[in-house]
Design goal:
heterodimer, A: about 120 residues, mainly beta, 7-stranded mixed sheet, 4-stranded antiparallel sheet, globular, B: about 110 residues, 5-stranded mixed sheet
Amino acid sequence: GAVVSQHPSWVICKSGTSVKIECRSLDFQATTMFWYRQFPKQSLMLMATSNEGSKATYEQGVEKDKFLINHASLTLSTLTVTSAHPEDSSFYICSASPWGAASNQPQHFGDGTRLSIL
Amino acid sequence: DAKTTQPPSMDCAEGRAANLPCNHSTISGNEYVYWYRQIHSQGPQYIIHGLKNNETNEMASLIITEDRKSSTLILPHATLRDTAVYYCIVSPTDSWGKLQFGAGTQVVVTP
């Protein structure tokens, strides 16, 4: 149980285009999901918290107009990289948990989306 | 900065136990210790977590010192598929789910 799926797993786009990445919780509902970014040879960095039915909250230094997050249902959050440029090339990963904040149960991660901007 | 300290790398022989240390000297009383691992080009995989008691599951064992300032993840019989970066993470009490990843330990299991 607690499977998180991301799509696509790999995308290559031209500079200036927008790219949408989906994060789905397959066998549970998640009111909150999290988006991370990982550059080569670096660790994961939290970008934003996706909240179902409300605005996402972004970590310091992450441009909310650049990285649009939509959490329109209890099983789907989307991250759109707008007007992507080569410096946005990275590994994007989402996480979710079927348990609430009080449970201290772990997050489960998707397999990530590798974004390459030419 | 991450609230944990781990050695950057470790080698382990296949079939032997791998003991991965983690220091978290500033851990608060109600903060849990989580272990994840990341195999190359994949998302992190949850391994185990604990508060103060030792924990065991089908993947690993977690030993937490009595003062909770450090812990050890034990992979009882390492296989080549256990080669990965292992992350020890202390959960933030005021921001559930927001995991702060450090550099982790690169574990290489050799035949």
